[in-house]
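Researcher: Let's do a round of design. I'm pasting the structure tokens now; please hold your answer until I've finished.
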């Protein structure tokens, strides 16, 4: 998972995609709408953000269509990675965690955000907590008041 900061525009792109698949110009329009007109993405900014999010495994191409002889690519949030099966004693509070644990916690937090359990500000704070955690007790601070398995609505 990335260690770089996530900018507001990128988080707004994730918020748009949390509602479903969308093409580039639709994302630009939706970001403007949910920001109350405050954030006006340009195509270069959007596609740079989408490329970074794809490289980080947070966003994937959903499908491509041809409209007026031009390709239109739709993007969606990537499904959360499957957490590894717990080992005996793996949940000891002072047991150190790895990147896979941090990524799984962040993916679960994104899903809870998509389902409306977290605000954007809460998501940001909790993802930061997850990525700076070194032990199970520290990472549990980010998820302790949320259901264990976020329900995916299809």
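Researcher: That's everything. Go ahead.
Model: Designed sequence:
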């Amino acid at each position: 998972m990335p260690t770089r900061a996530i900018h507001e525009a990128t988080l707004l792109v994730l918020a748009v995609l949390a509602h479903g698949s969308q093409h580039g110009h639709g994302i630009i329009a939706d970001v403007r709408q949910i920001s109350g007109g405050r954030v006006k993405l340009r195509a270069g900014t959007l596609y740079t953000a989408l490329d970074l999010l794809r490289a980080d495994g947070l966003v994937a191409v959903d499908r491509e269509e041809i409209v007026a002889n031009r390709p239109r690519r739709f993007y969606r949030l990537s499904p959360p990675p499957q957490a590894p099966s717990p080992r005996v004693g793996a949940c000891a509070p002072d047991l150190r965690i790895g990147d896979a644990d941090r990524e799984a916690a962040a993916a679960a937090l994104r899903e809870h955000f998509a389902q409306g359990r977290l605000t954007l500000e809460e998501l940001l704070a909790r993802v930061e907590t997850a990525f700076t955690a070194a032990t199970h007790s520290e990472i549990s601070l980010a998820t302790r008041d949320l259901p264990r398995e976020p329900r995916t609505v299809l």
